[in-house]
Design brief:
By secondary structure, the chain is α+β, with helices and mostly antiparallel strands. The protein is built from one helix and nine strands; from the N terminus they run αβββββββββ. It has a nine-stranded antiparallel β-sheet, with no helix packed on it.
Length: 109
């Protein structure tokens, strides 16, 4: 087997591995609306505007976000964890509660 044949096999193996991985949405940043309540929140990097309208910071990664509900907001002190499911849905888990699916807010022009 020659050098180009080995390189070609390695390239093909890499493409197969990458194409078999689940595709994740671009980023959790943006405006999210509850499917059950008339509430929304906004994420921009490590900054979140909570459903109560308070700006605070949390633990940010492109596909997940977590924070502790700040003083003055309902349920202050509770831990909230979010996981991006796809471009349009995020799973929001509150301490001791069942996870909820929130969707990106629709733009109205």
């Amino acid at each position: 087997m020659t050098g180009p044949d080995i390189a070609k096999r390695i390239l093909i193996a890499g493409v197969v591995i990458v194409s078999s991985s689940p595709v994740l949405a671009d980023a959790i940043d943006g405006d999210w609306c509850s499917t059950k309540k008339a509430k929304q929140f906004s994420i921009n990097g490590p900054v979140i505007v909570t459903p109560a309208g308070t700006q605070t910071t949390g633990n940010y990664s492109r596909h997940a976000f977590s924070y502790v509900v700040p003083e003055g907001d309902p349920d202050a002190g509770e831990a909230i964890a979010m996981q991006l499911l796809n471009e349009e849905e995020v799973q929001v888990s509150e301490e001791g509660g069942a996870p909820e699916i929130w969707r990106r807010c629709e733009l109205i022009s």
